[in-house]
Structure formats: C-alpha cells, structure tokens
Amino acid sequence: MTTVLAIDQGTSGTKAVVVDGDGRVRGLAERPVHPAYLPGGGVEQDPGELLESVLRAGREAVARAGLAVDVVTLANQGETVLAWDPDTGRPLTNLIVWQDRRSERICADLAADRDLVARRTGLVLDPYFSAPKLAWLRRTVTRAGVVTTSDSWLVHHLTGRFVTDATTASRSLLTGLDTGGWDPELLGLFGLDGEALPEIVACDAVVGHTTAFGGDAAVGGLVVDQQAALAGEGCLAPGDAKCTFGTGAFLLANLGTTATRSAAGLAASVAWRLRGETTYCLDGPVYTAASAVRWMEGLGWIRGAADLDDVAAPDAGGVLAVPALAGLGAPRWRPDATAAISGLTLSTTTGQLVLAMLQGIAAQVAELGAAVERDLGRPLRRLRVDGGLTRCRTLMQAVADLMQVEIEVYPSAHATALGAVALARTAADPGLILADAVVPWEPGPLYAPRWTATAAADFRDRWSAAADRA
User: Fold this and answer.
1) Beta partners for 208?
2) What's the average model confidence in pLDDT over 241-268?
3) Which of 155, 225, 354, 463 has its CA 20 to 30 A from that of 323?
4) Quick check: 147 pLDDT over 90?
C-alpha cells in the first residue's frame, strides 16, 4: 500500500506521522503552536508559527522514517480562519481560532435567521463555526485578500491550489447540508457575498503535488481533524460514535448517507465524501477539556495531566463543577456561560476540586451522548475514545459511569493522523474502500460503568441544573 505523511494540525500543536503500506508508524514529529488567549474571548494563532510547525514537523517525520512518501494529507482544525493574499500566500491577519468568541454579536444580530441557518446547514448559529469569524474579520480587521479556513491557506502553500474539502466546508455555516455547495443566500446573510471562495473537493481527491517534504508527493485525503478520528477509530456504520479528548472534547456519531438534522441540539455535518457518496455525522463540542486541565495546573492544583489520577479524590464530597471556562457547547450553545463550582466547605480538598472538574467534563460528554441517542432513536452500544486525556483513568471511568455505556480506548495517540491516512489511501487508490483503508486496531483499556443507572441519572440531573445556572 501507499506510504503516507499525515499532518494533524491542531490548536496547540502540529503532529506529523509517516505510515507505511503495512500501517506501521515509521516516523513521528511534533511541533508546538501557542494560541494567544485575549480579553473579550479572543483566541488567535500566529500564522508564521503555524506554517513553520507544519513544514518542520513534516520534514522531521519524513527524515526519521527514511522512506519516500507517496501522499501527503492534512487534517485541519475545521473552524479556524484567517485573511491572506491569494497571489503570494502571505497572511494578512492572525488565525482566528475555533474557540474565539468575538463574533457573538454577529450571531446575535442574525438571531431571527437562526432556524433558516439550521435548516439549510444542519448547524447551529454560533461563533464556533467559520462564517461568523470570517464576517468578523471582514467587518473589523481587513477587506483585503481572501478569507478562508486554515486548510485552504496551508494547502495553497503546499500545492498552489485554492481548495477546501467537503468536511471543512460543511462546518462553515455557508454550505447546504443537502447540496454540499456554497449557498448564495447564506453568503449574503453573513455579508460574504462576492468573496472568492475555494473549490470544495471530496475527501478522496488528489488536489495537487508538493515537494515541501522532500521528493514529489501527491496531496490528498483532506479532512477535518474530528472526522478523521471518526474514520480512524472505525466508526463506519450508522450509530458508531467516538469522542476525542483534546483541547476540547468532541463527540461524533456516524449518521450514514442520510443528511439528517438534529432535533436534540447537536450539529450535523459531512463525515466524509468518498467515491461520489457523502456520509454524514452528528457532533457536539465540549469547549474545555485539556484546556481545563491546563487551567487547574496554572492554579497549582496539579503539576500536570499525568498528576490527575494521583490527586483526584475518591469522592467529590458534594462539590459540583461546571468547567465552562470558554462557554458551553452543545446541546446548550451558550458562549456566554461561565464556569461555576458549588458545594464548597471549609473541609473541601484540592483532590475533591480536581475530581469535580473531571466529573464536569464527563457530564458534558454524557449530555452529548444522550442527545445522540435521542436523534438516533436508540441507545449507543459503546463509545470509542482517543486523545491525551484518555490516559486519565478517573476521567474515563466518570464518562463510563455517567453515560452508562462501555468505553473503548483507542490504543494509539494518533487517531486523527491514522484516520487521515485512511482517506489518503482512498485518494491514492480509486479501487480501495474506506473499510479496507483504515489501519486495523484493537481497543486498549475498557471501562464499564460502576455506578447504577439511578446514581448516574441523579448526578446528571444535579449537574444539568448547575449548568443551566451557569
């Protein structure tokens, strides 16, 4: 099979993984990216640092692999945007990260069109998605160049092409979920009519070639990072679900080939477009997961994520935490929500606070799982999980307890990259189906619920009431 360089470009870093034809990781490199958290809800990245992280990580991974790469693929953040000069590739603004909340006013002004947007796009009118941030850039920063998601800019640097993939476009609030194309009415709604727009390509498309990482290699298999992880974890049948625990936590469930809208407060978007057919997914974000852990570290509660299991108390002692440090995502979609901790007494310990924060993250994931079950009309059979925080046994057990399903931990730290590898393989070999392109894997740790269903429901009710107050 094909040798692939998969670049997983994320919020806090870029990972590059070289995978050979047998599915073995042969080269790995990571480079940090440092988002800046600004007053007023702003979150930005330096485009120069981000591009350099992609190039350096990719070159280091290829050098360590010692292999010629056939295909380069990119998994991107999905909703992070910037303005740039299409003639030179020069960035005209910083990257506005998916967590940025400064376009809340734009969404509020469009509140009367909320139902239209949801019906047309499958998404929720929220600053999380691309269009409000693109409009904010145009209204407050610059009218020059083009405004796009980060993938278009990165791919332009690699190939000279002006494209985005179907999954990223579906996260924009600017495409029809049924049509998969740019929607003139939605563009006008956000004041983006007349903008130069990238071509929307399928996830199995080869969009060009690059010599940025050594020899000549095709570029294809483009995808949003969360959808890549859905594929990498083998969630290929309707009802299969996964949750990635990174800066935030992102639960996605495969919907099959029907463009179903959520009735439970989730987003519906493209999972992948392959072989002329589109597969859809439901998804919901938890805005703070690892970022909440870093917040606890900054306060001195823990020394780092590796400390969580040692510090967390066996019981929270009545402490309840809503870790809405960057607002609440699905199904509430309240960017104005703030974090809250209740039940404190003079006897409260740091360990109880840490456990309460982890349970608060788990409670948000459980709410997403319940919303997926309402939309599917049946219970989830299991939840597959990946990401750095899956090493925290306390958090994974809390997710199992509150969701009342078995949790399967993906055994590799590279779920997103390996999912992108699968899509790149379909781009390189038109006769290959996705199921055969996915790198085989067996679950790592399994977590079964220890709480009773009654205890889980009682906790979720109390947590939900606290989240409503937040």
Assistant:
1) 219
2) 96
3) 225
4) yes
Element (H, E) at 372: helix 350-376
Buried-state track 323-343, b at ≥16 Cβ within 10 A, e below 16:
bbebbbbbbbbebebebebee
DSSP conformational letter for 254: E
- Sign (positive/negative) of CA torsion 147, 148, 154, 155? negative
CATH topology of domain 234-409+440-470: Nucleotidyltransferase; domain 5 (3.30.420)
Question: What superfamily does domain 4-225 belong to in CATH?
Answer: ATPase, nucleotide binding domain (3.30.420.40)
pLDDT digits (tens, 9 = 90+) for 152-165: 999 999 999 999 99
Calpha distance 306→297 (Å, rounded): 11
- Rounded CA-CA distance 281/190 in Å is 25
Stretch(es) of the chain classified as CATH 3.30.420.40: 4-225, 234-409+440-470
Contact by Cβ (8 Å): 151, 222:
yes
**Least confident window among 20-24, 161-165, 307-311, 466-470:** 466-470
How many angstroms separate the CA atoms of 37 and 32, rounded?
A: 16
Which of 348, 338, 361, 363 lies closest to 318, judged by CA?
A: 348
**70 has a pLDDT exceeding 80:** yes
3-state secondary structure 63-91: HHHCCCCCEEEEEECCCCEEEECCCCCCE
Per the omega criterion (within 30 degrees of 0), is the bond before 331 cis? yes
Q: Of how many residues is the chain composed?
A: 470
Taking the C-alpha atoms of residue 278 and residue 89, their distance in angstroms, rounded to an integer, is: 31
Mean pLDDT, all residues of the chain: 97
The DSSP secondary-structure symbol of 45 reads E
